[in-house]
Amino acid sequence: MRLHDELPVDHRLGQVYRYGAGLGGLFLIAFGILGLVGDSPGFIDTTGKQVLGMSSNGALSVLSLVAGGILILGAIIGGNIASDINMIMGVLFVLAGFVGLMVLDSSANRLAFHIGNVVFSFAFGFVILAFGMYGRVSSHLPQDNPYWKRRREHEREREAERPNGPPVLVKVLRPGPPNPTGH
Q: Distance (Å, rounded) from C-alpha 44 to C-alpha 154?
């Protein structure tokens, strides 16, 4: 499925993309600000300090501010842009969860990830990803959904291009095994 601008600008699904991006962005900005204020552990310190139940250092705080700003920018723009941004950011957070899981308790843990950060990255990533995909990706879209209409439009065009028109189902009768009852 191609993800382009099939939805009208004022479609109600745009609110899901916007609110999802906005709330997620606000949380990340709060996390980033709280990680930078007070007793900061250092920019790439591997131990970090506790912020909202997770560990943070200066680098993770700055990355959180940038990610939050991108999500809020998507919420301001709205529409399919917000959906696309949510999907991209969701995938990045899930990947960050995997990377954080790989570097736990090692010297390569430059963002001071602990298990709480890993769980948050997975959960936040999947939630933001779901916000971005809402109404765009499904096998059972309602018929009034613009994506359903768009998909069916391509199918009708392909059928119209066939020289013999739409396919016709033909039942072929084949001789079967002899009937033991004789009927």
A: 51
Q: Within a domain: residue 165? A: no
What CA–CA distance (Å, rounded) separates 48 from 41?
6
49 within a domain of the structure (yes/no): yes
The DSSP H or E segment spanning 138 is: none
Domain housing 93: 13-133
Question: Given its phi and psi angles, is residue 97 left (phi above 0), alpha (psi -120 to 50 degrees) or beta?
Answer: alpha
Say how far apart CA 183 and CA 149 lie, in whole Å: 51
Q: Residue written as tokens 């809020």?
A: 72
**Structure tokens of 154?**
């391509």
Sole residue written with tokens 């709060």? 30
In terms of pLDDT, which residue wins out, 52 or 171? 52
SS3 164: coil
From the list 66, 35, 51, 44, the residue with the least C-alpha distance to 112 is 44
Span 92-103, average pLDDT: 93
Average pLDDT on 142-159 reads 65
Nearest alpha carbon to residue 49 among 2, 116, 145: 116
Number of structural domains in the chain = 1
